[in-house]
TrEMBL record, chain A:
It holds the Pfam family BPD_transp_2. One of its GO terms (molecular function) is transmembrane transporter activity. PANTHER family: ABC TRANSPORTER PERMEASE PROTEIN (PTHR43370:SF2), SUGAR ABC TRANSPORTER INTEGRAL MEMBRANE PROTEIN-RELATED (PTHR43370). Keywords: Cell membrane, Membrane, Transmembrane, Transmembrane helix. This is ABC transporter permease. It is a multi-pass membrane protein. GO terms for cellular component: plasma membrane. The chain crosses the membrane at residues 12-32, 37-58, 64-84, 96-115, 135-161, 192-214, 220-238, 245-265, 271-288. It is found in: Cell membrane.
UniProtKB/TrEMBL annotation, chain B:
It is found in: Cell membrane. GO terms for molecular function: ATP binding; ATP hydrolysis activity. PROSITE patterns: ABC_TRANSPORTER_1 (PS00211), ABC_TRANSPORTER_2 (PS50893). It comes from the Bacteria. It is a peripheral membrane protein. PANTHER family: CARBOHYDRATE TRANSPORT ATP-BINDING PROTEIN MG119-RELATED (PTHR43790), GUANOSINE IMPORT ATP-BINDING PROTEIN NUPO (PTHR43790:SF4). The lineage of its organism: Bacteria, Pseudomonadati, Pseudomonadota, Alphaproteobacteria, Rhodobacterales. Keywords: ATP-binding, Cell membrane, Membrane, Nucleotide-binding, Repeat, Sugar transport, Translocase, Transport. It holds the Pfam family ABC_tran. This is ABC transporter. CDD domains: ABC_Carb_Monos_I, ABC_Carb_Monos_II. GO terms for cellular component: plasma membrane. The keyword Nucleotide-binding applies.
From TrEMBL, chain C:
Keywords: Cell membrane, Membrane, Transmembrane, Transmembrane helix. It is found in: Cell membrane. It is a multi-pass membrane protein. This is ABC transporter permease. It comes from Pseudodonghicola xiamenensis. The chain crosses the membrane at residues 20-45, 65-83, 95-111, 117-136, 148-167, 201-219, 248-269, 275-293, 300-318, 324-346.
Length: 306, 505, 359
């Protein structure tokens, strides 16, 4: 083995790509949870986004349309969750699980005829000479547009939650839905919109895996990223910039273990592949003592009694 | 007579099985403080929710300064100059004061401008408040100020106040009344909901009395005695509980130097607490809820364990025992929160009887449950405490608040406690049920039990307790005999007015 | 307009009827789905739900019902105890794998010793393996307040990777010509879970029935079962009643893990025959559906597991005969859970047409 084969600059550039699906899904779930809804169906929405994006991109030849379809697919699946939890007042945990099981089945069904195909590539943003800068060039520039979109999304979510009226109302609904209702805010409507946003983001994240990161279609290819996204929101104490930091940290771990596999380190492949999951658990343990920043109404069922 | 500000005409609202409001009509004049008086369950809340746009009437209508007024949602009501201070505060613990206030406004200014306006209004009306403090850390009185200022910033024509004084110390009540008088002088009308008669006599110009969803009368409070109003409200003359002369026996339970932190995020830690209760005594613990009452109950029930010696029963250290071991010894408790703490909402009364009764009533053997015996115990509670329910197989949540409270108190009383601790035993309970619960506590003490009654209702404590202490910010005052205790003294024991120092800072 | 109104207490009638309604709704929508896939929906439904029981080859399929149903019952019973107490162990798949690995490991260690105690030891090891794996989220939750949903699920992926490693290295059959996978327990009588293979009877079926009876008595007659239900209904009231939440968490997770582990062991020592990369087929997840479909009630779980086993078998037949993709069945099962959760509304709420009533 030879660790010097690992190029740190390339490592950082690839970790950004590896982290983007996680980042997209997590920032969406953050908004959902801020509104007081715990959607455990992220994995299901991601995989649905992955296949709908893949299918549309292959059929139309346009990765952009693919991503659009992925967002729509994820959002569409999240509508089911919204109906279950906001209209039928079902338990959030069970509904989220149902969504994941359903999404995995649905995607495998649609994906049957897409195995082994190549999706159309997405052009990288060409910033001319900037790309050729040493060190910063490959790290900051020359990525695909969706990666920049994900960063923009984090900034937007942060700004909206912190500074806008809409963000304040969203947080209020998540904090205490009874009080928000008493003040006349439409709790269910706001939550449904948040759920849709979360679904669209998860869908984008899934498509990022099937269209850019891998890029091909295999059953269950999200491999738990949706669940890690859920953990990441807790890890980040519901703060957007911490979600970004956390996602890149996990991205780093993933890329590093791939690289270690590549240079033939003497640890069996399976144990290296375990590392993202194990690290997720460790991080959860380290950070679960502080729950103070969790939205007050998170996961509680809201029914206006009058 | 000049045109009234708001006029209600035949408002009716029915819920399945109950007509909450039946043909309610009355007028609120400009600059008038109008009392809406009635027992729990008389329909006061439903009525104000209709005025505030949270509930739509089935029939009937309202006019505001002569124009038809039918708010479809609170937003519309607010836009028309109707503001409301809720009984259970509609506040967000994790947000700061300014954010909370912004949420109650239609077009709030930028947060910084809002903060300076909050300071301005709070000074004008003598209600000091720091706009950037987190609401969860505020006392009940300060939280109410947040609500009031939120209303005042919108220059309301009508301010609705739902039981505003139940969470205030006597000194804070005085400050509130000054503010309300100032508002009245400026021409704001106030709809003041309460069941506290003396307050209404001090503050209000007219009163409308509700009973079982109907208007049963109106009066000028200053010219009516409290007793007359009470009888209109309840519909019959009330029996006040009888206390027989009691002799206090040896110490039944004592707490020495107890300090614990609260298990909940915005809870209150108990600080160096001492108390003694004797056999045959009722010790009343007053104070505004949220000052450590729940924590004190937890320490006594065994839900919060402490150093063994900090809590002693007849000299035996029990601080480290859990709830089951304490029940075995005869220390029983009834928490404030009926649904979810004292009782499991979706479980049957039989199962809820089992919940605390299993030890002393021997409802199990070798871990196996005796359902027949449990059902028998539930039936005994239902019978002895006149709990209105079709039978013990019904779920706890199907009972009205008063009936469930009778069940919860009855469950403990019937287990022959040596020490009984109750928290807010008559909160949200109608007058008749409250009277019977108080009588049960008195009888229990007369029978040789020690009773600790934690309550916000000072009248209740004066009525039944032998000694009184106040819990304020986790500290317990020195207990004093209730006889001869004045309201001012009680107020000072409760810590006077909270957070007033900010005004002078 | 339709308005929801909370019932004063949950309706017993609806709580029995909703699972049936959900099954019907799933058949209707599943039929539409099959039609969309270009299959005759009636034939598809018949193939899945009728043929395994009464079709031409039902003599072959009926024993399969026991084989597929037993692990589902075992796992779902364990999960249902936790779900009742508000403990969300969704990592039964991992506990199932670890139980199989531990049990098979013990069996293979004894190979080729022919002694009566080999199989009981394997069962114990299987239960311990699942128990230990479930103790990880349990202890982390008790000690640090870590979310058990996420931890137990992460551990599924870890278990799958361990399974991969074991089947290609440590437990690989030394006489297997280099193919991955362990020795086959069907060739090792002392370590074999079959009682009567032709009938589909293995020790797992017996264990499943015992688990149902055990859980029924526990929940309805025993203090512990009462505390489990109480903790789920009202956690604060449970503490008030004297329940120690930490002990309850460990107990529920431990029981669920042990049952899942045993299910894994019975499977590997019988129907599956060997440890291999593709040993686990998702029983741990399907059991979640089974637990809900059975309303977390032991007898209900028995029926629900039978139904789910039927869809597994029927799904395989449909795959062979109609070319219906395997994923369609998975989706079918997910759909069932959806309808169940949605219809559950009727148990706790009444739907009312909001007509203006004058009084």
């Amino acid at each position: 083995m030879d660790l010097s084969d690992i190029d740190p600059i390339k490592l950082i550039a690839t970790l950004m790509v590896a982290a983007t699906p996680l980042l997209l899904a997590a920032i969406g779930e953050l908004v959902v949870e801020k509104a007081g809804v715990l959607n455990l169906g992220v994995e299901g929405m991601m995989i649905t986004g992955a296949i709908s994006g893949f299918a549309v991109a292959v059929e139309t030849g346009s990765p952009w349309l693919g991503f659009l379809a992925a967002a729509a697919g994820g959002a569409l699946l999240s509508v089911l969750f919204a109906i279950l939890t906001q209209v039928a007042l079902a338990n959030h945990v069970a509904s989220g699980l149902a969504l994941t099981l359903f999404g995995l089945g649905l995607s495998a069904l649609i994906g049957q005829s897409y195995g082994g195909q190549k999706p159309p590539p997405m052009a990288e943003v060409d910033l001319g000479p900037l790309n050729d800068l040493p060190v910063v060039g490959p790290i900051l520039f020359g990525h695909d547009p969706i990666l920049y979109l994900s960063l923009g999304l984090v900034a937007a979510v942060w700004a909206v939650l912190k500074y806008s009226r809409m963000g304040l109302v969203l947080r209020a609904v998540g904090e205490n839905h009874d009080a928000a209702h008493a003040l006349g805010y439409k709790v269910v409507r706001i939550r449904v919109l948040a759920i849709l946003f979360g679904g669209a983001c998860a869908g984008l994240g899934g498509a990022y895996i099937s269209l850019i990161r891998v890029p091909q279609w295999t059953d269950g290819m999200t491999a738990g990223v949706g669940w890690i996204a859920l953990a990441l929101v807790v890890f980040a104490s519901w703060k957007p910039w911490r979600v970004l930091a956390g996602a890149y940290l996990f991205g780093g771990v993933t890329v590093l273990q791939f690289n270690l596999q590549g240079v033939g380190i003497a640890i069996p492949v399976e144990y290296l592949s375990m590392s993202p999951y194990v690290i997720t658990i460790i991080v959860l343990v380290l950070l679960s003592r502080d729950k103070s920043s969790a939205p007050g109404s998170l996961g509680r069922i809201f029914h206006a009694s009058s | 007579m000049s045109q009234p500000l708001l006029s209600l005409k035949g408002l009716t609202k029915a819920y399945p099985g109950v007509i909450a409001n039946n043909e309610i009509s009355f007028d609120i004049g400009e600059g008038e403080v109008h009392a809406l008086l009635g027992e729990n369950g008389a329909g006061k809340s439903t009525l104000v929710k209709m005025i505030y746009g949270l509930v739509k009437p089935d029939s009937g209508g309202m006019t505001l300064r002569g124009a038809p007024y039918a708010p479809s949602e609170p937003r519309v009501a607010r836009a028309d100059g109707i503001a409301m201070v809720f009984q259970h505060f509609s506040l967000f613990d994790a947000l700061n004061v300014a954010e909370n206030i912004a949420l109650g406004m239609e077009n709030p200014p930028a947060l910084r401008d809002l903060a300076s306006r909050i300071r301005e209004v709070s000074e004008t009306y003598g209600l000091p408040l720091d706009p950037f403090r987190t609401v969860g850390d505020l006392s009940a009185g300060e939280r109410q100020r947040v609500e009031i200022i939120r209303c005042l910033l919108q220059d309301p024509k009508l301010l609705i106040m739902d039981e505003p004084t139940s969470v205030l110390t006597p000194q804070e009540v005085e400050i509130l009344f000054k503010t309300l008088q100032q508002l009245k002088a400026e021409g704001t009308s106030i709809l003041y909901i309460s069941h506290k008669l003396e307050e209404i006599r001090t503050l209000c110009d007219t009163a409308t009395i509700l009973r079982l969803g109907q208007v049963v009368g109106d009066c000028i409070p200053r010219e009516t005695t409290a007793r007359q109003m009470a009888e209109m409200m309840v519909g019959s003359s009330l029996k006040t509980p009888e206390r027989s002369g009691r002799t206090l026996g040896p110490v039944a339970l004592d707490i020495t130097g107890l300090s614990v932190s609260s298990p909940t995020e915005f809870g209150t830690a108990l600080k160096n607490l001492h108390l003694i209760v004797r056999v045959g005594e009722i010790l009343g613990i007053g104070g505004v809820a949220g000052n450590g009452q729940e924590e004190l109950l937890g320490v006594l029930s065994g839900e919060i364990t402490t150093d063994a010696g900090a809590v002693k029963m007849a000299g035996q250290p029990i601080g480290r025992m859990g709830p089951t071991a304490r029940r075995q010894l005869g220390v029983l408790t009834a928490p404030e929160e009926r649904l979810g703490h004292a009782a499991a909402p979706d479980m049957s009364l039989t199962e809820n009887a089992l919940l605390t009764g299993v030890v002393r009533e021997r409802l199990e053997s070798h871990g196996f449950l005796k359902w027949g015996a449990a059902r028998g115990f539930a039936e005994r509670i239902i019978q002895a405490f006149d709990v209105r329910t079709p039978g013990p197989e019904n779920a706890a949540r199907s009972l009205s608040g008063g009936n469930l409270q009778k069940f919860v108190i009855g469950r403990e009383v019937l287990q022959d406690p040596k020490v009984l601790v109750v928290n807010q035993p008559t909160w949200g309970v109608d007058a008749a049920a409250a009277a019977s619960i108080r009588q049960a506590l008195l009888d229990l003490a007369a029978g040789g039990a020690a009773v600790i009654c934690i309550s916000q209702d000072l009248d209740e404590l004066m009525e039944i307790a032998d000694n009184f202490a106040a819990l304020n910010e986790g500290r317990l005052s020195e207990p004093r005999p209730t006889e001869g205790l004045s309201v001012d003294e009680i107020g000072l024991m409760m810590g006077g007015a909270h957070g007033m120092e900010v005004a002078h800072a | 307009m339709i308005r929801l109104e909370k019932r004063p207490q949950p309706s017993r009638a609806w709580s029995m009827a909703t699972p049936l309604l959900a099954v019907v709704a799933t058949m209707v929508f599943g039929g539409l789905l099959f039609a969309a896939l270009g299959k005759n929906p009636f034939v598809a439904i018949q193939t899945i739900f009728w043929d395994p029981l009464f079709g031409e080859y039902s003599f072959f399929y009926r024993p399969q019902l026991l084989v597929k149903g037993a692990p589902l019952v075992l796992i779902a019973i364990g999960l249902s105890l936790g779900f009742r107490a508000g403990i969300w162990n969704i990592g039964a798949e991992g506990q199932y794998i670890m139980g199989a690995l531990a049990g098979a490991g013990v069996g293979l260690a004894f190979y080729p010793l022919d002694a009566w105690y080999v199989f009981p030891l394997m069962v114990i090891a299987g239960a311990l393996g699942g128990w230990a794996w479930a103790m990880i989220p349990g202890l982390l939750k008790v000690k640090f307040g870590t979310n058990e949903i996420l931890v137990s699920l992460m551990l599924v992926y870890v278990a799958e990777l361990i399974l991969g490693s074991m089947s290609t290295r440590l437990l690989k059959n030394p006489e297997g010509y280099g193919f991955p996978g362990s020795r086959n327990f069907n060739d090792y009588p002392a370590g074999n879970s079959w009682i009567a293979q032709d009938l589909g009877m293995h020790w797992g079926v017996a264990a499943a029935l015992i688990a149902v009876i055990f859980a029924y008595v526990l929940l309805n007659r025993h203090m512990l079962g009462f505390h489990i239900r109480l903790s789920g209904e009202a956690p604060r009231a449970a503490r008030f009643a004297g329940v120690n939440p930490a002990r309850l968490i460990l107990l529920c997770l431990g029981l669920a893990g042990a049952l899942a582990g045993m299910a894994g062991l019975f499977e590997v020592a019988g129907p599956a025959g060997q440890i291999n990369i593709d040993f686990n087929v998702g029983y741990g997840f399907t059991a979640i559906i089974v637990a809900f479909l059975g309303r977390l009630n032991p007898l209900g779980i028995l029926l629900a597991a039978a139904l789910m086993a039927l869809t597994y078998i029927g799904g395989e037949i449909a795959q062979d005969n109609l070319g219906l993709p395997a994923a369609a069945i998975q989706m079918f099962q997910g759909m069932l859970l959806f309808f169940l959760l949605a219809l559950d509304l009727l148990t706790n709420y009444r739907l009312r047409l909001a007509v203006k009533e004058r009084t």
